[in-house]
Amino acid sequence: MDTKTILIAFIIQAIMYGITFYVLSLKRKPVAFLCFTASFILIALTDALTIVQELLPIFFSLIVINTFFFLFFILMVFGFLFYLDQKVKWVPLGVILTFGIVSIILLTYVFPHYSLRIIVSSLTTNCFVITGYIQINTGLRSTSRNLSIFMFLLILFYSLINVARIISAIVDYSSVGLLTENITFNNIIAFLLLLSINLWTLLILTLDQYVMQKDLRTKNDELSIMASTDSLTGLRNRHLLEQDIFRFTALADRFHTPLSFIIYDLDFFKTINDTYGHDYGDEVLIKVTKAVQAKLRDTDRAYRWGGEEFLIILPNTSLDDAKFMAENLRLSVKQFFEEETVKVTISLGVADYVASEPSNHWFRKADYALGQAKQTGRDKVVVWNSEESLPLAFAKIEWQDAWNSGHDIIDQQH
């Protein structure tokens, strides 16, 4: 296979990759992928001009070909920098481009020499890839260490190609010559450049795939958090409680450890909402959550059950210890609002888990104890009496304004 045949294959691949990156630019990272598109179109034009080099005026056969070759690397660097959202350092690349073009012009018109042009072109190319790697690697390494290593090896591979071209130019040191001369060395270099364009494409597509997968994992994590977290208070929500409760009860059964629960809600929260508005009511819920969270242990789990009602799981905690914890929580909330205009208190019901009972009895016991706390004065802790039978059914009634008697003290107690 001669050099021109390899260059034709190079052109076909470059055009295909350019079209691919253009299509990708329509979906995401448009500036980055348009830079990649332009770079591959330029390298295809460079190879097309190289094939007919001997038929072109000297300006196109030497100046334009080398300029396009330099711009290919600059656009590749821009593409990676824009993709990784890094700042482009224009000055170093501009200086190298100016040096390369001026040198090629001098070695074409003032001191025409084929081997010196090869040496200057190879040195300029190496400066581009090394400078570009230095700029790109910071962002690439933070994205993927493996891709950073891949790019380093690709830059090393490209640098070795240019070193080989420099050595060959020094050995032959000819004042005239063509890149398409069908000699073994030119064929090898053309084949290695063909290989390199595939490696560049592989790096770009692998980076894009890696970033897409990383973004997908991040969004999945965010969705998972949204699905299991109360957006107002930041606590775990009811959905997650239903999953966690099986794990905690299973651990208690397996290791024969105590497990207790606290259910609490805010006293007269409807009055607060009606008087000061729902925005203020939301602020109260957040403040109560902070006051409660400050007293919980790392092993405790707090959940927003719904509305102004919350639930806490206390692993490895006896009923007496759970009562002590509940009293601390009640006092913490009360003290938190001492300096506030609106005084806020909470009522709490406490119960424990008994392995021999149906799975939902722990909740019914704690909820019933909470109901007793509300009915017997509020701002208090009531512990489920293990000697008492759980009612077959009980209901909570949400007080309606239409039921008010007109007596402020009596109505406020409902």
Our Rg estimate from Cα atoms comes to 37 Å
Please bin the fraction of helical residues: 55-70%
The major sheet is characterized as:
6 strands, mixed
Helical element count? 13
Mean pLDDT level: 88
SS content category: alpha/beta
Give the end-to-end Cα distance, rounded to a whole number of Å: 94 Å
CA-based shape? elongated
Find the count of extended strands (DSSP E, 2+ residues).
Answer: 6
Q: How do the SSEs run, as a string of H and E?
A: HHHHHHHEHEHHEEHEHEH
Strands of the widest sheet, in order across it, are 1-3-4-2-5-6
Strand percent estimate: 5-15%
Q: Which residues sit in consecutive blocks of at least 5 with pLDDT less than 50?
A: none
Describe this structure in words.
- With about 425 residues, the protein is α/β, with parallel strands linked by helices.
- About 65% of the residues lie in helices and about 10% in strands.
- The chain contains 13 helices and 6 strands.
- The chain has helices at about 5-25, 30-50, 60-85, 90-110, 115-145, 145-170, 185-230, 240-255, 270-275, 280-295, 320-335, 360-375, 410; strands spanning about 235, 260-265, 300-305, 310-315, 345-350, 380-385.
- It has a 6-stranded mixed beta sheet, with helices on both faces.
- Helix 3 runs antiparallel to helix 4.
- It starts with a helix and ends with a helix.
- The mean pLDDT is about 90.
